[in-house]
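Need tokens for this chain, all 202 residues.
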Amino acid sequence: MTQGIFLQRLKEATSGRHRALECQLPLLDSGLSHARYRQFVSRFFGYYEPLETRLLTVPCWEEIGFDYAERRKTPRLEEDLLALGGTPDALAWVPRCRDLPEIGTLPHVLGCLYVIEGATLGGQIITRRLQTTLGLTPESGASFFNGYGVETGPRWRAFGATLTAVAQRTGGEDDIIASANQTFASIDEWLFPRSETRATFL
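Here are the structure tokens for all 202 residues:
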């Protein structure tokens, strides 16, 4: 199995969930306001903070030779919220997501990471748009979407190589796909809750 073949299969198998989520995000809208943008950054923080806390407790990183600690998104989201006028006390009150994707196995972890690492690629487009529409830069509230900056592409390819190698070794392709779809679904529900009581933003 080559890296391209499995990643293409994974992309196709998750494209429905991916598109459904992407179509709802207002981050590329010309009429996006600072207040609405801050709401979404707050909501992303409420998702990533508990997810990454859980991810870092999974005992699989040494096995796959992948350092997720240096890829954490939560610190960037904290920086952005503070740059947008938030305070450390306010961050403590941001609602946290409880309905997180299952990450009890290595394939589940990789499926989840496929979604959140892949988001750094789209974030490059969002970063440029935010600078145009809101005048925001990675230093003034758009650090999260800037991802790894110029290293975004190389880091994505490194992750893709790891994901493909593990899938080939463990035969966990179907579990990776299922986990990626579950992650897309949980982000969608968190950002756009269908319940009667809408979530409270920072």
